[in-house]
Amino acid sequence: MRSDVEPGSAAAVPACPLDQEVRAVVLLDRDQRIVYANSPAQEALARMGVENPRTLWDLPAQLQPAVQASKPVDTPSSEVRDLADGLWGVYLPIQELDPDWLRSMVEAEQMAAVGQLAATVAQEIGGPNTSIQVAVDHLLDGCGSEREHEKKTLQQVLDQTERITRLTRQLIALADPGRSQLGPVDLHDIAQAACELLETSFLERGIQCSSELGEGPVLAIADRNHLLQALVNLLLNARTALQDWSGDRKVRLRSEVNTDRVYLHVEDSGPGIPQEDLSRILLPFVSTTGGTGMGLFLTRQLLVEQRGGLKVSSPNEMGGATLSVYLEIADDD
Question: What is the CATH number of domain 183-328?
Fold first, then answer.
């Protein structure tokens, strides 16, 4: 793929007019070989993980439908001359370089890669972890009452192997997203359950957790267990944001209902999220707190499986960040 050619050569294409266009453009000959790509096109393709494609069929599958709308180059209007041997170029508008569109392409590629990685990691960890559990169980059975210290240490090891087991199950669920059992659930009830699970943890850290959920049930379409896991993850994220915060340490849950969606906002009074990080905070391996950068990504995946999603905004009226869960509203009948 050439980004420019020598002026006056047989396949010369004027670089400036194309490079000055807002759209990403690729030129193809009649054999579907790529003979030119302007700078926006190269940028868009690189962000989708494609470098130096040689033919039309090297382009990402998402772009193939655009080929149906391609037309031979109109020389007077496009300022692109005939290619060598009388072949016409094809003016292929990839897409307006809309930031949201580019981000969605990048996210799709990253999510697929994370899913494949998750399945591999779960498989590689699962076998050895099971062997460790069996060995520790055997050692525990052989410990008498006079070896309490050894028993305590072995039990701690066993607890950690069970934690690894739970993690691998979550990774498998990520790699195989068709596991949610969707149905009407009470969003308020699940929100209260998540708060109760972390009540002691918040109190120990001096964090005040409150809720503005209104009266009566609010029904949403979701998987109860997966939604509970997602809300616990968001509350843990708020706890992490407040762990070194010297100001007010508050977390608030607030529900909102519109015509077709229900929202649950998890708000904190911490430092918030820098504006430059808001657009990428839900991507994998992105963290503003020094963590793995997988927590919010996995949480969003759980919600997407339930036909919902996750939005992030900052600052809120308390000065911190707001993580907003949204789900389809369930019919009353």
Answer: 3.30.565.10
